[in-house]
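Comment on this:
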Amino acid sequence: MGATIFVGACLQGVGGIGFAMLAAPLAAMFFPQLVPGPLLAMGGCLSLLAALREREAIAWRLTGTALLGRTLGGLIGVLAIAWLRPQWLAVVFSLSILLAVALSALGWRVRPSAGNLAIAGTASGFMATLTSAGAPPFAIVMQHMSPAAMRATVGCILGGGAVLSLAMLAGAGRFGIADLTLSALLAPFLLAGFAVSSRLKARVSAVAVRRLLLALCAAGAIAVLVRVVLQG
């Protein structure tokens, strides 16, 4: 699992997303004790490290709007789980992400406005509650920002969201000392991957980062679809 954490941290350090989409499915299958708390803690730390590394590029107004949307989306997701079949909702959202990736590849542009970030935040909170993969909506909306601004702003949003989620898990008795210990044991792999990304990010062009984002979004959506199929 350490190798997965390393690669996921490196991917997210360069592209802004990718850690949870790579690590969560593998952890759920082979290391369920890491889900959700320890992975969420590591992902939150990684996101905050990315935000701090390029803090001068953070779009603070967009961050606040996105976090409000993410909170709302999380609440809607909780209600949806209680009243609807989450598997089908996950399928709908995953197909929507794949459609957005295809349109983006064909030249469709989404402006990273406050309104669009609020919508992306709501979709992210909803998807994260249902599937643990909440980053793709942000990546779709922010793909045309500069790589530094995208990484820092997404990092700030995801880091803030992780703090809120961990607080709720702790309040529900789902995150404690044992989870912190697991996170700490894997932290060296996380930090090593992030350190490597710091060397790589300057060598990766904006076009390459955008392509990486779209590829990660598509991979995350496909992973959710595969998980739904395997779960029946």
